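Blinded run. Sample ID left blank on purpose so nobody reads anything into the name before looking at the predicted structure. Input follows.
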Amino acid sequence: MLAPFACQPDASRGRLWPERLSSFRSPFQRDRDRIIHSSAFRRLKHKTQVFVEHEGDYYRTRLTHTIEVAQVARTIAGVLGLNTDLAEAVALAHDLGHTPFGHTGEDAMERLMAPYGGFDHNAQALRIVTRLERHYADFDGLNLSWETLEGIAKHNGPVTGPNADRKHDGPLPYALAEVNAQWDLELDTHASAEAQVAAIADDVAYSHHDLHDGLRSGLFTEDDLLELPVTGPAFEEVDRTYPGLERMRRRHEALRRVFGRMVEDVIAVAQNRLTSAQPKSVDDIRHMGTTVIRFSKPLYQELKAVRSFLFHRMYRAPSVMAVRAEVTRMVDDLFPLFLKQPDLLPPEWQADVTAARDETELARVVADYVAGMTDRFAIQEHARLFGSPHATDPR
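Blinded prediction complete.
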C-alpha cells in the first residue's frame, strides 16, 4: 500500500513515445528493467568509482556502487511507503552518464566541452536514456517514463529557479536543455520523494564504501577512524561488544554500524518531516520548496568531518593524484584527436559524424563516444593511438 504522496504507477505521466502497457509490470518496473539491460549500465562494470578499475578486484566500481545505491534506495523507500520500483530505477540510472575515470574524467570532459555547451554526468545520463541507447525499432533511447526522467534530471534538487543550487548558475548543460525542450521536466521544482531517496542513497552508499576501500588500500587505518565522529563511536561499540575481534571482522562490524546509523537517521528525519507537512500528493512533495529526504543536522555535520577526512586522505592522496594526472592526460589527448580526425571513431559512429552540422555538434558526438568509454578501453585506445602504454595500463 503506497502512501498518498508516493508516485502511483497508474497516475504516471507516461512516455514520450506512447506504448501499450505491460500486463505484468508497472511502468516503473519496466523502466528499471530497461536500464538494467542497457549497454551503458553494463559498461559501469569497468568504470572508476575512486580507484581505476584494474587497481584491485575488491574495490568498488561504478557498477557495484550503483547496485549498493539501489539497495539502499529500495530499503528507505519501502519503509516510507514510497514506490520502491521508481526509487530503484532512478538509483540504477543515476550514474549512467559518468565518464571513464570517475570524477577525474568528468572534470576533464567538462573543461574540454566548455566551448560546446558544457558537460555534466547527470545531463549525459539523460542523453543516454533518451538518445544514445539505440536498440528499439520505434524510438531512440529507452523511452522511460516522465517520472524516471524527472528523477534523473533533478534527484539532487531543482536545476532552475529560486531553490536551485548555485552550482547550476548559468546556462543549462546542452544535454539537459535538449531533453527538457522536448518534454518539460519542471526543472524549477524538487523531484519526487522517490528520486530524493535515490539521491540520499547515493550519499549513504559512497560514504560507507569509500571508508571500506580506503582502509583496504592502506591510505588510512582503523586508528585514524577512531578519531572521527560517526566512525569512532562505531569502532568503540564493537570493541566493547566483541573485545579482541579479528581485524577484518572488527572493520566490517564497525562500518556496518556507520551504514545503519545513516539509514536510520534518514528514515527518522523523513518520517518527522512527512508527519509535519502532511503532503497529500507527489505534487505536494515537488512544491514543498525543500527536500523531505535528508540527514539530520547533527549527523550531516558529523558526516562533513568524515568526508573532509576522505577528501584529504583518500581522494587527494599522492598516489591517487598521480593516477588522476595520468588519466586526465589520456582524456586530454583522446578528445582533441577524435575531434580533429573523427574518421577514427568506429563505423557505427560515422552516421552521427556525417550528420553533425558544425564543430559544436561534432564535439558532442565525440563527447558521447569518449564519455561512454570504460577505463580499460580508454587506456587501451590511448596506448594504440599514441603509441606508448602508461603507468595505468593494466597490461
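Unblinding after everyone has recorded impressions. The chain has a mean pLDDT of 93.
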